[in-house]
Amino acid sequence: MRASLVIVGAGPRGTGVLERIAANAAELPPGKGLDIHLVDPYPPGPGRIWRTEQSPLLWMNSRAEDVTVFTDTSVEMTGPVREGPALHEWAGLAGDAFVGRRVQGSYLRWAYQRAVAALPPEVTVHHHPCRALRVSGPREGRQRVWLADRARPLLADLVVLTLGHLDAEPDEEQAALGAYARAHGLVHLPPDFTADSDLTPLRPGEPVLVRGFGLAFVDLMVLLTEGRGGRYDGDTYLPSGREPVLYVGSRRGVPYHSKIGYRLDGTPPPLPRFFGPAEVDALLARPEGFDFRRDVWPLVEKELEYAHYHRLFDAHPGRTRLGWGVFERAYAAAGDPAERAALVAAAVPDPADRLDLAALDRPLAGMRYPSHEAFQEGLRRYVEADLTRRHDPAHSPDLAVFGALLSVYGRLTRLGDIGPWWHGFFGYLASGPPGPRLRQLLALSRAGVLRFVGADMGVRAEGGMFRATSPTVPGFAVEARALVEARLPQPTAARSRDPLLRRLYAEGAAATPDGLLRVDPADGRVLDRSGRPHPRRFALGPHTDARGAGAFTRPRTGGPAFRQNDAAARAVLAFLRAPAGRAAA
Known about the structure:
Layout: E1 3-8, H1 12-23, E2 34-39, H2 87-91, H3 101-118, E3 123-128, E4 132-136, E5 143-147, E6 154-156, E7 158-161, H4 172-184, E8 187-189, E9 207-211, H5 215-224, E10 231-233, E11 236-238, E12 245-249, H6 277-284, H7 292-315, H8 324-333, H9 337-347, H10 357-361, H11 372-390, H12 397-412, H13 420-430, H14 435-446, E13 450-454, E14 458-462, E15 465-469, E16 477-480, E17 482-485, H15 499-506, E18 525-527, E19 533-539, H16 560-577, H17 579-584
Parallel strand pairs: 1-2, 1-7, 2-3, 7-19, 8-17, 9-12, 9-17, 12-13
Antiparallel strand pairs: 4-5, 5-6, 10-11, 14-15, 15-16, 18-19
Helix pairs in contact: 1-3, 1-16, 7-12, 11-14
């Protein structure tokens, strides 16, 4: 009997698992065929998020040279390396280009086709363009995967869930806002993927409250301006008259930092230094567990600071007062943040050259503006300064910190669910929009199409309207018929709109306090609530507590997603090869 593997989710992560199965095909049991069933209503390769049928105005937020779906020698994995072209090499583009998402979708489709072609002849891939509804079956026997378009389930020796980003039912606050909107004839758009949102209820010329200032907001900004016929003439925006007026705010009250517009020359900081495998092992070995803020963040903070000052002393020694060797020894010996701060103050005379992570995280903390218009001018100056700094190699320690953030994220995936704060902080510093998008934001602000609300934006439903305020501008408030939550849904198992994931959770799969599916960090096997890994069910991606830093990996950065894909693929093949596994199947 032929073996059967079902992969639910055929986007980038599912394609990555398929590629790793092909790379490790020597581990397949000899003389036994394998059917791989890919279940996804969207095209295999790009999946839903990167499908080619979306607005050509939407870009990737990474440079083409920073995107690859192929392993290289920097990946710490057991399986063989199978290198391939990064996006810019495949597309024949300049490395610093920001391409449309349609191009990325074509790259992913090609990568999927290449993975299928690399499989041995005895392996057959079947794509089922529908949704999976449920997984059932005993731990010791074949699994049944129930599909939306057929009465009989797929039989599977093993199931791998690579579900990607999922829709979610509204939480208590969102449900209340939605109910208020329905009762008063208002518009409320809950967290969603902006490319899939119906924006037609947002009327031209009317105010729209927007809560969220990250990448989902950038997409919304584009679709409601250029997407409605507006255009840019240099740094000036020429409205079409069909745009609403966007009043945007968030917890920080500022947009994500611009992508850095230069490359790091010279020697990069030697990482990891203070947060490497040994430190992660020690955290995992604690019988009492660990707390992120108390036990992990101090190590992360010291690692990021180390990268910053290594680069400052190495590339800009004239802006320091000590030799690097003296500083490094004193920095390594410093026992707490206060001691490190005193050392930095003595060694780095200009405060602008010092790394202040707290100030970076909350740049408007404690700031108050006398009027709404004064804040518009102040935030435009902030964005202009960010653009200048992020494109000036004189501030190259910023890029060294970016590299350290990637290094840290790769280590943190081993710790499981560490709460949402870190992921938001990482995205804010390292996953911001291309510089041209922030220049467009400035043009929209000057044209009056975009208005800034401030930090800790609060929204209340009262008087038949939505009302937004912020302590950044005391006394200011704006009312609107429409409220858009410009952020992605939280990937929770309990509130997911994916029926398979919700059923899995209801039937005993373990979840973290934040609602992420718990998996074995070694190979991605789904854990039950007693901590036992399921021998036949795996899960990888943002709906798990082993989620990675983003959709794609920069070449030569060790991509933890590649390591996870490889471990899961090898575990699948080992199960199929083992006599006990074949007998139970």
